[in-house]
Amino acid sequence: MKKAVILLSGGLDSTTCMAVAKHEGYELYPVSFDYNQRHKRELELAKEVAAYFDAKEHRVFTIQNVGGSALTDPSIDVPEYEGDGEIPITYVPARNVLFLSYALGYAEVIGAEAIFIGVSAVDFSGYPDCRPEFIDAFQQVVNVGTAAGVKGNSIKIETPIINLSKAETIKLGLKYDTPYHLTTSCYNGGEKACGVCDSCVLRLKGFKEAGAEDPVAYV
Amino acid sequence: MKKAVILLSGGLDSTTCMAVAKHEGYELYPVSFDYNQRHKRELELAKEVAAYFDAKEHRVFTIQNVGGSALTDPSIDVPEYEGDGEIPITYVPARNVLFLSYALGYAEVIGAEAIFIGVSAVDFSGYPDCRPEFIDAFQQVVNVGTAAGVKGNSIKIETPIINLSKAETIKLGLKYDTPYHLTTSCYNGGEKACGVCDSCVLRLKGFKEAGAEDPVAYV
Known about the structure:
Two copies of one chain form a homodimer. With 219 residues, the first copy, chain A, is an alpha/beta fold. Chain A has a single domain, classed as HUPs (Rossmann fold, 3-Layer(aba) Sandwich). Helix content of chain A is 37%, strand content 11%. In chain A, helix 1 links the parallel strand 1 and strand 2 (27-34). The relative contact order of chain A is 0.19. At the A-B interface, helix 3, helix 4 and helix 5 of A face helix 3, helix 4 and helix 5 of B.
């Protein structure tokens, strides 16, 4: 059975990727990261999502925090949604590079064919490491920088929702029975979502446009 | 003062890079990694090298081991030098991708201009992630995947010894007063070097060709 490593945050996008990878017939090896994120609660939910999809193994890697982001530094507040096209202070330096690097090492060791990452360049916060240019560049790193790549059986970085809006992602996920009730998106990480951070605003807008109801609770 | 992050293993190549970066006028921010390597002794030596060069800060990141290599799995023996052009079992999946990713996040946070990595594609073990193609691909990841890159002040991956043989590296290092007595290269990680693993064989050959004496002890 072909294997896929899935970057699983416990959020809406990555959980949709789990559903897509399952639908495509992969054996699922989700990986999650403890990087001292403010919304560490997502790790508990990631565990539930992994169980829901009957994952073969779920690895949680701990990454030492280097600071510099509102998501990992308790002294920097999470701002409300601004949407001004600037890179927000919630940007975590090199986050997706690190996540993909861990996924890559793991994928090589278990012999996975693909790594799924739920980035979207449509309804997103303006993070540079969510754009197709970044994914293409990282794919090239995989092709030339790993034994698998050099031997001609490179690991494919799969981005099933990169061109989808949040509403389209949700529609896709609902088609594949994605357990959105187990997901969390709020940067503030409370039991109930704040409804005003970038991530909450995009999620609520997505559900509204998809004509569906968000099953999680808001304050 | 301009800042550089230097990947410092405590080995010959990375210590030479410290000397080069110092010579080029950088404030030094070496980073080392504990990835359950067999030769963990190098971390102690890295600390001494950092002190020798009066580094501003020395960070040691712990990376959870995913296995699959003789360097990190005690059940796989380190082979003697073969030099048959194959990728050896000492290859650690995605190692330099991970190392560079940590260095990148750190470099962005401290505002460093450069990351030095002591890869060489001349006298090397055949690891794909030591080749210029890999460095070029990772540079592109930095350019398009980070806030620094997108804002037009990308962090430069510096590879001062990528085209140098081991002998040329040693000659360069001796010119800049590199403390080779503090370095270790042996994969087996003993107090005295084994003299027969890939890394020892390349080192001994390098010193011989450079007409210099290796100051470390061999069994």
